[in-house]
Write a structure and sequence with these properties.
282 residues, alpha+beta, 7-stranded antiparallel beta sheet, 18 strands, 22% helix, elongated
Amino acid sequence: MQNKAFSKILILIILAVLAGGGILTYQYWWLPKEEAKNHAISEAKIKEISIQKPNLVITGENLSEVKIYMVPTGTGIDPETMSQIENATKQSENNGEQVWIYQYPENLLITNIFAKGFDNNGNLVGRIDLPVIGATALWDALYGIPDETADWQTYRNEEYRFEIRYPKWWNIYELNGQILFQDTPLEDIPNEWFSINTKNDEYDFSSYDFSKEEIVDKITGKEEINISNVNGFRYTFYPKSELYILRKYIILNYKGRGWVLSYSGLSPGLESQILSAFRFLE
């Protein structure tokens, strides 16, 4: 009888230990499984789309796929069924935060671009539209040349009625009727410079001989030019100077005065930008 009683007690103890161990085991493994489960079902989101030439850039979270829709021009177009559809490529991911890119082709003629994001189960989680709509606006945004003069400064002279925009890295000096712009302090030799001078009477283009100017050593070119809707002449020459560097000299007549725009050291692109940024005030 005693052995049977002891056996029953032993069995109960073993069952209790097993049950307790099972509970402890269940509790121990439950937390990490739940955390893994929560991680697995982290919400997928599509956030923004932007143009970073030559790519479309899409940001999101936990996406498995991003599709780009490019809506063609025309009437009666269904964006969902008639768009050109392309897949974006995941560029990077950090703790679920993702960047997707798509390098768009040249010469797209479209009116709208939007992107759709999908989760791990292939379900659509959202759509975002590029905030540029219309064929012309989109073409400019995708392919237009950026305005390199956007941060330039503006000089305005009310006495002589003109203004000019100039690079922000240039200095400006007013010297006895001459307005001088250059990329160095006044006492230093500039790499780039542009000056504006006026005189009290107009040039007589029928008799004017630029070679007679004291500064001229050798003329290499002459051409007609239009500046701010005013016709004149541009001369290219080498000066009588220790710095035997090619210069350009534009002469104009405007409202009874002769004008000289002279410069040196400008690249062709910067030269075009500067001359386009000069204008006479009405």
